[in-house]
Amino acid sequence: MSRKNSRAAVTSKTETPDRPEKPTRTKLMPSTTKLSALAAAALVLQEAGQAMTCGELIHAMADKGLWSSPNGQTPAGTIHAAIMREINTKKEQSRFVKAERGKFAWAATA
């Protein structure tokens, strides 16, 4: 048997190694997991029911204990960039809408 054929016999494509199943993510994550900044911003905007600036979002997220900046210098700028990226990428399926200059709202309230 040639060397090439012996390797093919050892590693068959039909055999899969035993792997633990990956946990699946749900839309509503358990309270024990830490929210991302975007998820926390979406939650705050949904509860507020009105448009907010990124600075207001950061303060509201910190007050509610949902998310706080890990020593970032410009958390409002980071949130602004992330929200704009979601709006531009997901278009109609985005959780956010730009309500007016510098303000974002929950997509269902706009």
Brief overview:
This protein has 110 residues and is mostly helical. The protein contains four helices and three strands. The chain is globular.
How would you portray this structure in words?
The protein is mostly helical. It has a domain at 35-110: Arc Repressor Mutant, subunit A (Orthogonal Bundle), CATH 1.10.10. Helix content is 42%, strand content 10%. It has four helices and three strands. The protein has helices at 3-10, 37-48, 54-63, 75-90, and strands spanning 52-53, 96-100, 103-106. It has a three-stranded antiparallel β-sheet. A hairpin with a 2-residue loop joins strand 2 and strand 3. Helix 2 crosses helix 3 (54-63) and helix 3 packs across helix 4 (75-90). It is globular, with a radius of gyration of 22 Å. The mean pLDDT is 83.
Q: What attributes does this structure have?
A:
110 residues; mainly alpha; Arc Repressor Mutant, subunit A; three-stranded antiparallel β-sheet; 3 strands; globular
Strand order of the largest sheet: 1-3-2
In the CATH scheme, the class of the domain at 35-110 would be: Mainly Alpha
Strand fraction equals 5-15%
Task: Please give the radius of gyration in angstroms.
Answer: 22 Å
CATH architecture of the domain at 35-110: Orthogonal Bundle
Order of helices and strands: HHEHHEE
